[in-house]
Structures are given as structure tokens and as C-alpha cells.
Design brief:
69% helix, Rna Polymerase Sigma Factor, Chain: A, 0% strand, globular, Arc Repressor Mutant, subunit A, 9 helices
Length: 188
């Protein structure tokens, strides 16, 4: 069941409860890939989901609520990490997402050597490339939505994704179509 933004907008607590559970899981999976402090991620999720309920009447004006709340979550998490870094609560913390290679291990039956090769290849990508792959293949966002979340143009998102995929193809030595298959299997 998808999120009923209209239901939330009119104050349907069941719709909000469903959205809360669904968004909490999605934001948590995304947030712990950006920062290692799960308690911090949970705090920011609570903040964003409370904002959703408090500002529910304005949902109609938002063209893409999924993408909008991802952007809010990412920005809030970034601000919180920056604030904590200033107070030295997180030693040397900065908002530079690094997705661990083990998170991206292929879950389907494939040969172990290919799994290791793909994981190693993903690990060589920049944090930004890894984040774009995560948003595109795990969360299923379109290029436009990914661009919005990352705060870059759609054209830059296409370039970022193309470079990432070509790098993976060259490092894993399999056709690009197979890389797509492996990534989809890897992130679902």
C-alpha cells in the first residue's frame, strides 16, 4: 500500500500512521548510510515525521511529497551533523556519505567471485556516486527525484549515474545490462 498523501492532508490518523511506518523505515535505511550514528538518524526522522503531521494541510501544494520529504530529511540530517561537529560531540564528523560495500552485496544466487568484484568496484566509487546508485536502485527514485534530493541538476544526475555505471562495467567486466540486473538485485 502506497502512502495516502491526501488522507494525511485531511487529518486521517490511519493514513499518517501507515506513512509514518513506511517513511520511518525508508529514512532509517537511507540515513544510516549517510551517518553511522543511528540514534541521530532516528532523532532526525522523528523531527521530519512530526513536521509532516504539523504541516499536513500544505501537502496539496507539494508536487512530489516523497522527494520533498527526502530532501527535508537529508538537509535536517546534514544540519544536525554539522552542529554536532561544531560542538565536538561527533569527533571529526562531517556530512560525507560513504555507503559500505557490504550494504551493497548481491543477495541473489550469483558466483561469489562476481559478488566480491562488484562490491570492490562499488567501494571505489565516490560517496556521491554511491549515494546516487542507492537512491536510484534501492529507493527507486527517478533521475529527476534523485537530482532534487542530491541538490544537483537532472543533467548532472544522468552524468553521475552514467560514470558510475561505466566504471562498474569496466571493473566487473560484464555487460552494462548485467550491471543493472546486479544492482537491482543488490538493492532489493
Amino acid at each position: 500500500m502506497e502512502i495516502s498523501w491526501t488522507g494525511i492532508e485531511v487529518g486521517d490518523k490511519d493514513a499518517y500512521s501507515h506513512a509514518y511506518r513506511k517513511l520511518y523505515e525508508r529514512f532509517y535505511n537511507y540515513g544510516v548510510k549517510l551517518v553511522e550514528d543511528s540514534a541521530l538518524v532516528e532523532d532526525v526522522i522523528q523531527e521530519i515525521l512530526m513536521t509532516l503531521w504539523v504541516n499536513r494541510e500544505g501537502l496539496r501544494a507539494i508536487k512530489n511529497p516523497d522527494g520533498y520529504y527526502y530532501v527535508l530529511f537529508r538537509r535536517a540530517l546534514s544540519k544536525r551533523v554539522a552542529a554536532l561537529a561544531k560542538t565536538k560531540t561527533i569527533d571529526g564528523a562531517e556530512f560525507d556519505p560513504e555507503f559500505a560495500a557490504d550494504v551493497m552485496m548481491i543477495r541473489q544466487e550469483t558466483d561469489q567471485a562476481l559478488k566480491e568484484k562488484l562490491a570492490a568496484a562499488i567501494h571505489t566509487l565516490s560517496a556521491r556516486q554511491q549515494e546516487a546508485l542507492f537512491l536510484r536502485f534501492y529507493e527507486g527514485f527517478s533521475y529527476e527525484e534523485t537530482a532534487t534530493i542530491l541538490g544537483i541538476s537532472v543533467k548532472a544526475t544522468y552524468k553521475l549515474m552514467a560514470r558510475s555505471l561505466l566504471t562498474l562495467r569496466d571493473k566487473v567486466s560484464v555487460p552494462l545490462v548485467y550491471i543493472f540486473f546486479l544492482l537491482k538485485e543488490n538493492f532489493h
